[in-house]
Amino acid sequence: MLGKTISHYKILEKLGEGGxxxxxxxxxxxxxxxxxxxxxxxxxxxxxxxxxRFEREARAAARLNHSNIIIIYEIxxxxxxxxxxxxxxxxxxxxxxxxxxxxxxxxxxxxAVALADALSLAHRRGIVHRDIKPGNIMLxxxxxxxxxxxxxxxxxxxxxxxxxxxxxxxxxxxxTLAYMSPEQAQGREADHRSDIFSFGAVFYEMLTGxxxxxxxxxxxxxxxxxxxxxxxxxxxxxxxxxxxxxxxxKTMAKKTEQRYQSMCEVLADLAGYQYRPQTLLEKTGAEKxxxxxxxxxxxxxxxxxxFLADGMSEELILALSQNRQLRVIARTSVMQYKGQVKDVRxxxxxxxxxxxxxxxxxxxxxxxxxxxxxxDATDGTHLWADKFDGVMEDIFSFQEHVADQVTTALKVQxxxxxxxxxxxxxPQPAAYEYYLKGKLLQDAPTLQNLDNSVLMLQxxxxxxxxxxxxxGSLSGAYLWYIDTGLRPDPGYLAKAETxxxxxxxxxxxxxxxxxxxxxxKMKRGDIEGAVAQFxxxxxxxxxxxxxxxxxxxxxxMSSYLERxxxxxxxxxxxxxxxxxxxxxxxxxxxxxxxxxxxMAEYEQMISExxxxxxxxxxxxxxxxxxxxxxxxxHKLKELEPDGILxxxxxxxxxxxxxxxxxxxxxxxERIKAFAWDFYIATYWVASFYAIAGEKDEAFRWLxxxxxxxxxxxxxxxxxxxxANVQDDPRFAGFMIKARNEAMKLESFI
Length: 749
What we know:
By secondary structure, this protein is of the alpha+beta class. It is globular, with a radius of gyration of 29 Å. Helix 10 (263-274) crosses helix 25 (595-605) and helix 21 runs antiparallel to helix 22.
């Protein structure tokens, strides 16, 4: 076969062979792409049952469009040989991977989520796979993962449509022995819950390196599946989290009614586990030393110096974050513990850190006392403690002293930076106080707080006009006016730019100013410039959360979905309680086509960020839960009756219900004005015109989306909302343009 041309496919190499097929790597000469060709063995071409199974595999997989399910291009016959052409995926099977031992917990969960989401789609379409096993799961190589697919579910040869006929005839078995459900092992009728059991068996093997049931003879294996519980995970591998043991046990309950009743339920529990900071770190297996700087306590008479206590915490977080050997939890997440009395061991577990720094501030007239202590979060041991007694002028040297002592105690070197950081001149003490007050007011960006923040920062600059940090923070306040819509005057963008440049003229590495300029580039559609500038911010502050957020948004908007997911994990690891970090992770999942996984994650975080209900409604729309989508849209309307997102949510629902013309009733001039300069909403409006059949307008808005930064061409190709334009002759040219624009980020990724 090697070197032969079958139809328009040239055979290049043999990839593998099994009882039901021989697989070759080939080149599609018509479309110039690699493919995998699977041939039914010659001796089986006249076997009606074998041929039916072969064709069933092609039909079942072809019904499913999912990033984690193999794509079937066609099934055909050539010179008496029947074959199917499918997506060629480089990588290794899960069976090959687990031969070298169990996976890291975080990596196993990541693969489990991908597999569960693929099965959830199959089950919604009425397809039960019936042969879930490690050998039918391909782990994608790096190049393929860039397109958003962690793994590919293969071989739907045993799949059946529910409701068409009995899935398993009485007295017969279908599936691979070690991963069968009890009902399969007994030859009884099996529904989608049989796949849930097999999924659990595969998950078990990922976590332990061994299948849950084994034996020298088939009869012994079958007996175990039906009558015996598998060995406890915790006895197979030390350190198995209790939550994972519970999830696996529930998937593998002997009675179908005691299992999870859908893969959506599995995904909901996996999402809860996946957001644990320690889980995110387990994906890489390369944990750094880690620390959480808890909010310092103000113990001054009258507690009038809370801003000083909060400022001390923030300055120490910033100083320690500049060390690349140290993972430092962001201020947003540690502020959850303000005013709480909690065992540091519990804090360490919740944040996934090995050490905690805590302290207090006491001010009386001109005198200041600051205490700090470093604690091992694993056992509560105090490793170091110190105190400072002095005046405000000396507080900056004490901050440096604490950072130096902490890194010494943790045996890491301070200041291993990508760029050289020159020494900074300490600000005037009174200016520093106004600066702290102004900066901290931006934590809750209401109109009153932002106005007061600007006032405080301007006072700081009146006292010290060379205070770079105050200029940088002021630029951030002006940005907030625009981003919150509280003062939408474009003049504030110009003010933000002016004071940011002033800050950088005084300190070329001033983080807030660098971030402001990056944000402005992003707003103006200079995506490459924005990513380059965001990268520069991370050189001065590796944990700058807004930079990590928006840089990752731009990466996923350029279709680098797997890399974006890695960056989202990094953000969650340093800021595990920030709702926006959870929104980002969920939204990347959505654009990977993992709708059920995204839906489960949105449901976990939506109470914290109700404005993101539009995304939950969108996820419900994609999985076909239109009643839930409508409930989410109504809730959003109740919360923000004058907002512009609830009409967008309702428009998506109308489109899914086939009311294509009614969609445009929601797309008024206010929404179009908002969407024209906001690349996510621009694409949504393009989708509405596509659903309504107004193709010219759809392409106009699609072109605009690409122009201002939405180059997510992989998503454009599969988004069902664009179905009416995906076969238009103009779409191919548009896709080429979107891809070319996205590729401009290659050097930054």
